[in-house]
Amino acid sequence: MRLWIGSILLVIVAACPIERTAFGGANEQGIVLPDYYVKDIRWDDLALPVQWYMHEEGCINNHNNGLPIFFWISPVEAAWELGIALQCWNDVATTTLTSAYAGTTSEADVGMDGINLVTWADSFGVSSNTYARTLIHIVEEDIIVGSSNRDLNGDGHDDLDPAIYEDGCLLTAGTIVDADVKFNSEYYDWFNAFFWSSGVHRIASVAVHEFGHAFGLCHSPHLVKASTMFGYSSTTSKTSQDERLTLETDDVSGISRFYPNESMRSQYGAIGGRVILDTGSPEGAGGVSVVAIDSATGKTVAGGITYGLWMQNGTPVAGTFSIEWLPRGCYALAVEYFDGGDYRWIDNYNYDVRYSNVCNGNQSNTHPYDPYSLGLDFSPNGELYKPSNTSSDDLLPFAWVNVAPGQTVSLEDIVVNTDFPPVPADTTQITLDDDDYEEYVFTGGFTFPFSGSDYTSMFIGSNGYITLGSGDSDASESVAEFAGSLPRIAPLWCDLNPVARSEHDPYDREDPVWRPGGVYVSQSDKKCDVIYVAIPSKGTGHANTFSVSLYKNGTIRFAYYYVGAKHALVGVSPGGSSATTELNYTETSFHSGSGGEAVYELFSGNYVPPDVVDLSARELSFVWNESGSFDMFTRLPDMNYDGVVDFYDISILSSLYGKEAGDADYSPKADFNDDGVVNHTDLSVFASFYGTEF
After folding, report:
1. Which fold would CATH assign to domain 3-254?
2. Domain 647-689, CATH class in plain words
3. Which residue has the higher pLDDT, 118 or 300?
């Protein structure tokens, strides 16, 4: 079960307080009246360090959900947990943000009262699928602070403390002036660092997420599932909860962007660009998730949400994005569009996403300024950035983007994939229904050797795998079946559906529409390629584009473009065995199997590492070995993909030798051990393969 870690209620305050729900992008972007700009939400530097108080009773009602009555979290223990969470943000060297735990208060209720409160006692509504909720108050327009406007909500209490905000200081629109966190004690029990019981939740791991909201951050983009600010959690293990206390690149990038330590900016880089709809007269595409994928690890490390079209007089330009404070490295850029299957995601992001001119499922007659605004009535295919972008370029080679310290890389426009890509040249289309397979008989005398047998045909399944000997249509990935049943080659075993779905209620966000995918085969005398093009995950519009190549010597190569699946099993199995080895492909560049074992990674969809599907822009290769299993490589030295490691590859390696990730002409294709530099180690790997024909 997936649960929201936290949600946010943003209150815009002026002479007449106005409540709006605001949700995240890279920063809380909220409407600021009357011109309804999109504004970045942050504390003014005068308010730092932000002082936090806890209701004096601490973690009350902590036995509503099965926690034994003799386990009790004292106020001192609860405060200690809050201090740990605050320190996580204080320790970010690239920011000027500071905060502190200031003690307890008798105030139990959230609201704009000059007290930044953490409470378990308030009746402020938190639903059963949410661990906690953060309430933040911002000013609606630029104000010069004086005695006449310190009481922002007209309750007779000064909200702008003279000790912090002197007369005459300027507070810009979007400045946070009060924040509160309400923990859900009705539906959840809580623990600390020294005690854990299954089904309860660590205070610090949720608090660090909620404090991120209170400092102005939103939920991380949909593809950055390993970050502290990712919005979902579906596990109650102590280890996975403790991992939330380690801020990831996306968390650091977001908080540094809005509280920058300028003395360190020159040590980091940035990537910026614009996503557009090619509608004859190109327009910016708002509410789109754009993320950076680290070539060395395959992990999605940072991202943001593009600004929306519906701003009036606002800046920056609609459709633009900026991913800042990136460490030196080499990155692929992935673009994902929210769809109707993500209706909760849509509702829990900012206005740009909720009223996007792209995202399916955003059709609404409740837009505060344009009641007839609609997103596209289908889900565009997610994609990877490539130069000379078009609206149907799913299969074009993607580009790696090198980022050096102090450098901002400006990309060409990324065009939303509103059109289905052309049929790949020299291919045969395989017509598949949902949960289906079809046999393909190799031609021209080609055979594929696999686990001691030579096969003259293969069975291509709609659910992201190939079986040998006979077909299979099972949509539910299973390790036991993977190892023990048919010989199976699984680049992405999960419930996929290549059949289009066009009938839906355009005003029902839970009723998505998706377009058909395509499966194609291309064969030569050296290899056979099976290409899955924009195959949606069943029940959503999240497209998946990938290929598998079967070489005449038994080598298998998986190549991934954009992968939108949330769970999958990926690997190779000789079948008929219970022997298995699970790998983590982001942490293992080479593995040598033995004893007929199946080699795989299971991405369970639990939204915590390593369960997150992190395959976009990656390669995996499997080579049969003398021990009766497979050697796994993240990339092979056949860098021009001509089926042989020869002098042409030497030329490529020579041109890249000595290059490091971040250098303008670095490419990970020659970095065989993924250490960020092409050096003697890679040369040694290359030499061991020289002359190999695949």
Report:
1. Collagenase (Catalytic Domain) (3.40.390)
2. mainly alpha
3. 118
